[in-house]
Write a structure and sequence with these properties.
2 domains; six-stranded antiparallel sheet; 33% strand; single chain; eight-stranded mixed sheet
């Protein structure tokens, strides 16, 4: 049986929880400040900031995310209706009294599927020995067509450094390109980097 070719990253996609628990879609609504000037795409990491809102976490070798962005909802100024969409467009302003809410997978035990790249969006494999290591991120711009992130993990940076933001939990065998060459991985936010676990707060 031929498996689909993975030819580009798609951000971090929630699949389940540590210990094989099912990811039941549990999320938290978190506010984005009106006019926030950076687009956030489905699968991007986000973090809380000191005013209580969230923003995209653009860290690579260091990041302190609260979770992964899974969409946005806000009241359309023209129609007055609540609008839901895949990504937050930069500099979205809203009517007075309205709020912009991101949908965020914020459970520190959430596992995500992600693509390994060597540079920007160039897919690159790693061996099974990557499991258990920490790894850096590649922060590519998302797609305004699909609304999806293009964030990837950075092949070649896997190591034991405890400040790297992502922990590799497993490989995805179904899309392996060789006996010991995997391009998709199951990962989690490194425990000490997740905002709910680190001791310093926002």
């Amino acid at each position: 049986m031929a498996y689909p070719t993975v030819d580009a990253p798609y951000g971090l996609k929630p699949v389940n929880l540590i210990g094989g628990q099912v990811f039941a879609g549990s999320t938290r609504l978190m506010e984005i400040a009106s006019g926030y000037a950076t687009s956030i795409f489905y699968g991007d990491l986000v973090k809380r900031i000191s005013d209580g809102t969230i923003e995209k976490d653009a860290g690579t070798t260091t990041a302190t995310p609260v979770g992964v962005f899974l969409g946005v909802q806000f009241t359309n100024q023209s129609t007055g209706q609540v609008q839901q969409q895949q990504y937050y467009p930069a500099s979205q302003s809203i009517a007075s009294g309205s709020k912009i809410f991101a949908v965020v997978a914020d459970d520190p035990d959430t596992l995500f599927q992600v693509v390994s790249c060597s540079a920007t969006t160039t897919v690159a494999g790693m061996g099974i020995s990557a499991i258990g290591n920490n790894i850096a991120l590649i922060q590519n711009a998302g797609s305004t067509v699909t609304g999806n992130s293009k964030v990837a993990i950075d092949e070649g940076t896997q190591t034991t450094t405890n400040t790297l933001p992502i922990r590799i939990i497993d490989v995805v065998r179904e899309t392996a390109t060789g006996a010991d060459t995997f391009v998709e991985f199951i990962v989690k936010i490194n425990a000490t980097m997740h905002q709910y676990n680190n001791s310093t707060g926002v």
